[in-house]
Design a protein that fits this description.
This is Mannosylglycerate hydrolase MGH1-like glycoside hydrolase domain-containing protein. With 550 residues, the chain is of the alpha+beta class. Helices cover 36% and strands 19% of the residues.
Length: 550
């Protein structure tokens, strides 16, 4: 392991990348190095080669658009920045590596807000576009996480808050025509669900390409859309947090009330207690019974309690007839006869989409279902070793790459999953995760990494994480600080002190934990969280583990 540490110290990823555009890319590489200088080395290089390629292709997705400051683009055939993805969840991941680019990407949407309050659904070199709403990940959640993770820039928060308040008014004015309190879909593109059977016999874009208009002659539109409604619930929940942070206590209270009203509307209209699922409701009051990744979108918006999420794991997310494909998550339930496995075109009718993959993480972590989350991450990491194009889709059966290339959600998924599964991850709560789990050699028994060493600078401290098959070590500024058995996640606070351990594998992980000069004997089960309180380890959370179903 010492050899791997020495090998990593000789690597400067910013010098191994050949910039395609020197004047643009050199400052980005300097920002990468200054922010965290993240990289890793392992016994085999199958995954580290893909990681290095991902960094290079990420630079291709960052470019000046309407100003001379570069912003993140979606990549592939998508020439621009989309609010549903690039400007929200992609940006959340990017903020750990290139925070200045992420912040500029957020602000570009606020700067291009229309006078009536509508935010553009995309931004390209031709300007801002307003044809549809195209919402998935709540912008306010992404903005709040960026603020928490990157030094709490107050000017940024004020600008984004003002823009999001206006957009909430716009949505309630134009997308609540049935007066239910639910947000309505007028077209397939409103949710980014291209070719999904959810929107069969519905136009791709709103009536006359006007986001305020619904086809008056459609017998089924508008849909009461659970994902759009959950988005606004979560949006309002985080607007309350932001208002509180900005000293607007009265506004914060109003946002909390509005959020709860939206949540109640979601469950009143879009939740089917028989199927235990969320569906669109058409103009006739019928459930649109297509089981899709809408479920993951809704759950990622924090609408469920822990009991409900555990139930959804057993019934749907970890059910191999539904969404627990060999390479999860398919965009339509596997047992739906409308499921289409083809991956050669832009489709949300079956293929596993990288956007669905990266959006799912928040749902699992919000409910502290870490073991189950890793079961969904491991197959994707295996597929990553065979990636060369960074496609939009994967086959849920084989993990083979599908439509388009140089797609930023796929690129960022590589960077995120390696850090989340086996590396060092700074969190919005000002903690640092060191996850002692290695990629599992599931595909043909081929070794993915073997032991690895991950490097990252956080809060001015240079960390090296030695991740072995039996034991893990945390090195802090070249001093051994802590060691623990593999299968655990160590959580450090922003001062670099170990505060908790989490069981990351099914069954107990037992062994010696070393912190400074202190030694402890512990046995921690999957998903259990133990905290170091006044020199003693205590179990503070014990939810158990939900097993897969069939």
């Amino acid at each position: 392991m010492q050899q791997l540490r020495e090998q990593l110290r000789r690597i400067d990823i910013t010098k191994r990348i050949s910039p395609g555009n020197v004047s643009k890319d050199q400052p980005l590489l300097a920002q990468w190095k200054q922010t965290g200088n993240a990289f890793f080395t392992a016994e085999t290089d199958a995954l580290s080669k893909v990681y290095e390629q991902a960094v290079a292709r990420l630079l291709d997705c960052i470019k000046p658009t309407l100003t001379d400051k570069p912003i993140l683009h979606e990549g592939g055939i998508y020439y621009g920045c989309w609010l549903e993805s690039t400007g929200t969840i992609n940006n959340e991941l990017l903020a750990r590596f290139l925070p200045e680019v992420a912040e500029e990407t957020y602000l570009e949407f606020a700067r291009n807000q229309r006078e009536d309050g509508m935010l553009p659904y995309k931004i390209t070199v031709d300007g801002a576009s307003f044809r549809q709403i195209q919402l998935v990940t709540p912008l306010a959640r992404s903005v709040w996480h960026h603020y928490q993770l990157n030094g709490k820039p107050k000017h940024f928060l004020v600008t984004m808050y003002d823009a999001m308040v206006k957009y909430d008014d716009w949505l309630m004015t134009y997308r609540n025509t049935r007066k239910t309190g639910c947000i309505e879909a007028f077209s397939a593109f409103d949710t980014g669900h291209d070719l999904s059977p959810r929107f069969w016999h519905v136009a791709d874009t709103p009536h006359q390409n006007d986001a305020t208009q619904c086809n008056p002659h459609s017998p089924i539109l508008p849909f009461l859309a659970p994902d759009l409604t959950a988005n606004v619930y979560c949006q309002r929940k985080y607007l309350a947090e932001i208002a509180q942070e900005l000293g607007k206590q009265e506004q914060a209270a109003k946002w909390r009330l509005k959020a709860e009203q939206t949540r109640q509307a979601l469950f009143q209209y879009c939740y089917d207690p028989v199927d235990d699922f969320f569906y669109d409701v058409d103009r006739q009051g019928q459930f649109v019974r297509v089981q899709s990744d809408v479920l993951l979108r809704v759950l990622a918006c924090e609408v469920a309690d822990d009991e409900m999420f555990a139930r959804m794991l057993g019934k749907y997310l970890l059910n191999t007839r539904k969404f627990f494909a060999k390479y999860p998550f398919p965009s339509i339930a596997l047992d739906d006869p409308r499921f289409d496995p083809h991956t050669s075109y832009n489709s949300w009718a079956g293929p596993t989409n990288f956007l669905a993959i990266i959006r799912a993480a928040h749902a699992f972590e919000h409910h502290q279902r870490y073991v189950e989350q890793l079961w969904t991450i491991q197959p994707i990491v295996s597929a990553m070793t065979r990636m060369s194009r960074f496609s939009q889709t994967l086959s849920p059966w084989t993990g083979q790459e599908g439509f388009t290339e140089a797609y930023s959600p796929a690129i960022l998924c590589v960077l995120d999953f390696i850090e989340r599964l086996s590396g060092i991850l700074p969190t919005k709560e000002q903690t640092i995760w060191f996850t002692g789990v290695l990629p599992y050699d599931a595909d043909h028994g081929e070794k993915i990494t073997g032991a690895l060493v991950y490097r990252r600078t956080v809060n001015g401290k240079c960390y090296e994480f030695v991740n072995g098959s039996e034991r893990c070590e945390i090195w802090q500024d070249d001093m051994l600080y802590a060691a623990f058995p593999s299968g655990l996640r160590a959580v450090l606070n922003e001062q670099g002190e170990l505060v908790s351990l989490i069981g990351m594998q099914y069954g107990p992980v037992a062994g010696e934990v070393m912190v400074g000069q202190q030694m402890y004997q512990l046995a921690i089960n999957g998903n259990e969280q133990w905290q170091l309180i006044e020199g003693r380890w205590q179990c503070v959370h014990q939810p158990g583990v939900v097993a897969p179903s069939y």
